[in-house]
Amino acid sequence: MNDVSSESGARPLRVMALCLGNICRSPVAEALLRRELAAAGVEATVVSAGTGEWHVGRPADPRSQAVAAAHGLDLGGRARQLGAADFFEQDVILAMDAGNAGDARRLAPHGAEARVLLMRDFDPQGRGEDVPDPYYGGASGFEDMYEMLERSARAFAQAARGGGELRGQ
């Protein structure tokens, strides 16, 4: 991967947050990554997608919107599905869990350029663990999700600020 430091004059870092349906975890991760990368001074573009098609075109789950709003974030996007082009248009795909990462690796076309990592590869309190899907749970699951994603996004941004290759720690 190219140098990702915005101070080096390299092109912006291209990051995708990936979950199953792109309505709960990945929209929140997208907003947090955007915020934390900007705060770290890293020039980046951030998008999100899901591996499945069920929610394409829909807004984020109201519970994700509520937890994001409670923390000053707006989830204005619409769900989209991961496509073959994403593997060439992104530098890093941050999957929310091992299942999403495995699906992304299976869907990757020959010669794919994006690195698929787990979002929590960067979480100092749960390196390599999944971000549990809160879809079938209550509000506390969405707050727990937010906290995991915030820690991970902040650590990812600090790693990106350092330039060079991004690796889960």
Which secondary structure elements does this structure contain, and how are they paired or packed?
Blueprint: E1 13-19, H1 25-39, E2 44-50, H2 62-70, H3 86-89, E3 92-95, H4 98-107, E4 115-118, H5 139-161
Parallel strand pairs: 1-2, 1-3, 3-4
Summary keywords:
4-stranded parallel beta sheet; alpha/beta; 169 residues; globular; 5 helices
Shape: globular
Strand content: 5-15%
Number of strands: 4
Count the DSSP helices: 5
Straight-line N-to-C gap: 16 Å
Secondary-structure element string: EHEHHEHEH
The helix content, as a percent range, equals 25-40%
Record the strand order, biggest sheet: 2-1-3-4
Radius of gyration: 15 Å
Largest sheet, in brief, is: 4 strands, parallel
Mean pLDDT rating: 92
Low-confidence stretches: 1-8
Class from helix and strand fractions: alpha/beta
Q: What would your notes on this structure say?
A:
It is a single chain. This protein is 36% helix and 13% strand. It has five helices and four strands; from the N terminus they run βαβααβαβα. It has helices spanning 25-39, 62-70, 86-89, 98-107, 139-161; strands at residues 13-19, 44-50, 92-95, 115-118. Helix 1 (25-39) links the parallel strand 1 (13-19) and strand 2 (44-50). Helix 1 packs parallel to helix 5 (139-161) and helix 2 crosses helix 5. By secondary structure, the protein is of the alpha/beta class.
